[in-house]
Amino acid sequence: MDTLSGAARIDGKAFATGLVQRIASEVVRIREESGATPGLAVVLVGEDPASAIYVNAKRRETLAAGMESFAFHLPVSVTQAELMALLDDLNSDSRVNGILVQLPLPAHLDARAVINAIAPDKDVDGFHVVNAGRLFTGQPSLVPCTPLGCLMLLKNRLGDLTGMKAVVIGKSNIVGKPMAQLLLAENCTVTVAHIQTRNIADLCRTAEILVVAAGSPHLVRGDWVKPGAVVIDVGINRVERDGRSRIVGDVAFEECGHAAAITPVPGGVGPMTIACLLENTLTAWRWQNLPRSQARDTQ
Ligand code: GUN
Question: Tell me, what's the pLDDT at 242?
Fold first, then answer.
């Protein structure tokens, strides 16, 4: 970590690199012990350029970790039935331990039905209703990758989170809601704020842990942040400034020198998301290949 006028910069890129190295070692050990290679299938529908970039990055990292990568690129005209048939095949293919369907899907497809057609124990995005329910009820679950990465960074920085006051801005199924559940499971006192929340700045000023997933560039100003707080910025917003396009977070990073620590954008949470996808693929492999009690103990 280096410093920003007092606040430590949480280096998510370095943490993610270390995590991927540990995953790669585990993949080597699995191959030596059982001859198996954990595998991840990624399904992309259509030609959305941003989705294609994400999918390529996921595929590249999967291979770099020594895992098997199965890529499916379907035309935008694919029908719901055709996509469901592919998922049926992947669900029953023992070489495929994790399945991810890149979102968003074209409007004619029912994304909720597609997600819920993935076998819950292969749902490495953690979006299936069964995994959401497992997380909600404190059962071992495949957890959405971005909040899982945020939690790892928080625990690495703070250790035990018990009793801490956490505020999460954002109530999406992908980040805000699972983040709140994860912090609750760590015995934090959690408040979820969102676009309709009144006095949101005052609420944020009470937070020892502030996780921001609002999708709004520089929504959180320095004076919203309690001195000594740890701030996790999930935002990835493309903005035009001085005629140039740049990526900024949901937090005004330069105004947060009084925080104890803060994630930069880029280089904070972003790199953790793919690393956690690989971590989930390993967890899914264990669930599918080790005796159930042993597999769920080692996650
Ligand atoms: N699109 C943007 N982020 C994600 C993600 O984490 N998983 C999937 N499946 N699609 C996405």
Answer: 87
pLDDT for 147: 98
Q: What is the identity of the amino acid at 229?
A: A
pLDDT of residue 241: 86
Question: What pLDDT score was predicted for residue 296?
Answer: 67
Query: Of 144, 84, 73, 78, which is closest to residue 112 (Cα–Cα)?
Result: 84
* Domain total in the chain: 2
Which residue range forms the structural domain that includes residue 214? 144-271
Indicate if ligand 1 lies below 6 Å from the C-beta of 260: no
CA of 226 to the centre of ligand 1 (A): 31
Task: Work out which ligand 1 atom sits closest to the CA atom of 273.
Answer: 6
Spatial distance between the Cα atoms of 70 and 62, rounded to a whole number of angstroms: 10
Ligand 1: centre distance to CA 45 (Å):
12
Q: Which atom of ligand 1 is nearest to the CA of 277?
A: 6
Q: What is the mean pLDDT of the chain?
A: 96
